[in-house]
Write a structure and sequence with these properties.
By secondary structure, this protein is an alpha+beta fold. It is built from 24 helices and 21 strands.
Length: 664
């Protein structure tokens, strides 16, 4: 690149970065992802290093943050809030450490503090004699906004410290992921705009001119730095963090003191995956020299401390092109749109497809083939489309009126968002989907019978429904390409071994609309035989806690259907005999008690379910007035909130175990 080209590109980059700084820092509405911003910033920095005569004082590489939005009074920070230089690979992280280490050639590995980089809104809190006097946003690092009244609405920020000290506390205001999801659900119901991510939700909530709105939002605060003119108060960053905890602040519990760069990289590798199990957003790690005296010696550049750096995780949100929309027909006939994308790297994996949920969601997003779309993969296993580029207009993708598999006109049942193919008997996709699901681990758990085998068996005319699996012979399997005698024998034996399932597995495997594993389990506990379920009335079903109107009617409709009766008779003829509950009761200590389990527990959920059922209790998937107890682990979400509102008894794991001890 020559001088003229470099000058033009630098000016272009400066303008793009300024616009995005304003969108991010001032209006809390980023137009590009953090990863894209960092790439632009690095390009500008590289060009300015290559052509130093083109570097100017107004360059974004020389400044921090954005301007101040009107609405709050300005606050001049006593101590400037710097930004952080960052890297997205371990080589750059090592280079930073080596640069610092050169200043201390006579020392061995330096003490470093490694902590999670919380993706929230940076704030500075000023305390005088232990009393909170000012809470302010970072702003441009020199001047922020005085939002003291809103800061006081955050329960995890102490207004009076445990000691009468004078200091400034830096930290991040954030919104838990579960609270963010709940807020967006409420906004959708009210017809309001959704927040793009938890950081935007936190920023938007904190900067409300009406502090009552801030108080209604579930905001939290992690303190990450203490600054004091009293040099004897603490000598290291780690000591400062411990002091913050003593003073009443909540600090992120995952900060550690290490020696040298190797343990830092180990922590980065660990949290790259483990962060998805947290109930707050984090996009990297922050690494700081522990000794405050060394921090002062190393000093700052025009925008960042030399004694600290950030390591950024692979992006969780990336823009890519929507190349096509694939229509998938499921086992119940629901037609689901799936986005086919230009392949991208997202959170460490290659992503080619993403969920679009339904055609109402496509309409809401206003997207069509050809759009640039933002893809997210955070806690979710399946990536999803978040939004499109604002300036693009390719129209909106039209929902189909016929099934893509069998061309039957689609229907949309009242009160549902999905389109359905009503051709349950002859739609190939539905038939194969039901057979695949019957054999799946969640249902009958027939090892080896997957999509490919089902496709080949169906195409050869060997099976027309899942009951036909039980009439297959070893010779039938050997007619399939690449299936040899041993494999055929294994497949045959796996099918035979599934003939005596629990009633829960059997009901789940039938693919009855609205009947998943939890609902099937509740029904199996009430009706121990297939005959009793078939003869159950709507009134019998609706009175069961955890079984709603739609599920009750769906069960009645399923067992009345003549074609379903034919399949059930075939299953009986082939020797498939469901055995009632999967759990044999060992006591009646919890007879009549209904439990709901929510949140992350120390053991898999089925361990607790089994213990409850063996003691005669029931497990439901939803909280109601009939719920006896809610067993709540970490990050319990909306079920916890509903239980609290209804006055349902909430148990910790310890309470749960004591309950059994008390009943023995």
């Amino acid at each position: 690149m020559d001088y003229k080209q470099a000058k033009e590109r630098i000016e272009e980059l400066k303008e793009i970065i300024r616009e995005n700084n304003e969108a991010y820092y001032v209006f809390d509405s980023p137009k590009i992802t953090d990863f894209e911003y960092d790439e632009l910033y690095r390009e500008l920095k590289r060009l300015e290093e290559e052509f130093p005569e083109l570097k100017t004082q107004d360059s974004p590489t020389q400044k921090v943050g954005g301007n101040i939005v009107q609405g709050f009074k300005e606050h001049t920070h006593k101590y400037r809030l710097y930004s952080l230089d960052n890297s997205n690979n371990y080589d750059d992280l090592r280079k930073w450490y080596e640069r610092v280490k050169k200043e201390y050639p006579n020392e061995n590995d330096l003490d470093l503090v490694v902590e999670l980089k919380i993706d929230g809104l940076s704030c500075a809190l000023s305390y005088k004699d232990g009393e909170l006097i000012i809470g302010a946003t970072r702003g441009n690092g020199i001047i922020g906004e005085n939002i003291t009244q809103n800061i006081k609405e955050i329960k995890t920020i102490p207004q009076k410290l445990t000691k009468p000290v004078n200091l400034e506390v830096r930290g991040e205001v954030y919104m838990p992921v579960t609270s963010f999801e709940r807020l967006n659900e409420e906004n959708i119901e009210k017809g309001l705009k959704e927040f793009a991510n938890p950081r935007n939700a936190a920023a938007g909530s904190l900067r409300q001119l009406d502090s009552k709105i801030t108080a209604q939002r579930d905001l939290h605060f992690f303190a990450y730095t203490a600054i004091s003119d009293d040099k004897n108060l603490f000598k290291t960053h780690y000591e400062g963090m411990k002091l913050l905890e003593e003073l009443g602040f909540e600090t992120n519990p995952n900060y550690v003191l290490v020696k040298g760069i190797n343990p830092v990289i180990e922590k980065c590798e660990y949290w790259a995956d483990e962060r998805f199990n947290l109930n707050y957003a984090t996009d990297g790690m922050v690494i700081k020299i522990n000794d405050l005296a060394k921090q002062n010696e190393l000093g700052y550049t025009s925008r960042a401390p030399k004694w600290a750096t950030a390591f950024k995780f692979p992006p969780e949100e990336v823009w890519t092109k929507l190349e096509g929309i694939e229509l998938s027909v499921g086992k119940t006939g629901a037609v689901t749109p799936i986005a086919n994308l230009t392949p991208i790297q997202l959170a460490g994996t290659t992503v080619k497809r993403a969920s679009l949920h339904n055609f109402d969601e496509i309409k809401r997003l206003g997207i069509n083939i050809g759009n640039e779309v933002l893809i997210k993969k955070a806690a979710e296993i399946i990536p999803k489309v978040i939004r499109k580029r604002e300036y693009e207009d390719f129209g909106v993708y039209s929902a189909p009126d016929k099934c893509p598999e069998c061309q039957t006109p689609l229907i949309k049942p009242e009160g549902e968002v999905a389109l359905y193919c009503p051709n349950t008997l002859y739609c190939p996709a539905q038939i194969k989907g039901r057979i695949e699901y019957w054999a799946s681990k969640e249902a009958m758990d027939i090892d080896g019978i997957g999509e490919s085998i089902v496709e080949k068996l169906y195409n050869k005319g060997l099976i027309k429904d899942f009951a036909d699996l039980y009439k297959l012979t070893i010779d039938d399997f050997m007619t399939i390409d690449l299936i040899k005698e041993k494999s055929a024998d294994n497949l045959y034996n796996a099918i035979q071994a599934s003939k005596n399932p629990s009633m829960t597995k059997f009901l789940t495997a039938l693919s009855i609309k609205f009947i998943g594993k939890e609902t099937a389990d509740i029904i199996a506990n009430e009706f121990p035989t297939l005959e009793s379920i078939i003869n159950a009335t709507y009134e019998d079903l609706i009175k069961i806690d955890g079984i709603g109107e739609k599920a009750s009617q769906s069960i009645i409709d399923y067992f009345k259907d003549e074609n379903n009766k034919i399949i059930l008779n075939k299953l009986q003829e082939y020797g498939v005999n469901p055995q009632g509950s999967a759990f044999e009761k060992t006591s009646n200590t919890l007879e009549g008690k209904t439990f709901v389990i929510t949140g992350t527990l120390s053991m898999p959920r089925n361990v607790f379910e089994e213990k409850i059922k063996k003691a005669g209790g029931k497990v439901s998937g939803s909280v109601s007035k009939k719920t006896s107890y809610v067993l709540a682990g970490e990050n319990p979400g909306s079920k916890f909130d509903k239980a609290t509102a209804l006055g349902v008894i909430i148990l910790t794991e310890r309470d749960f175990n004591l309950l059994f001890e008390d009943n023995n």
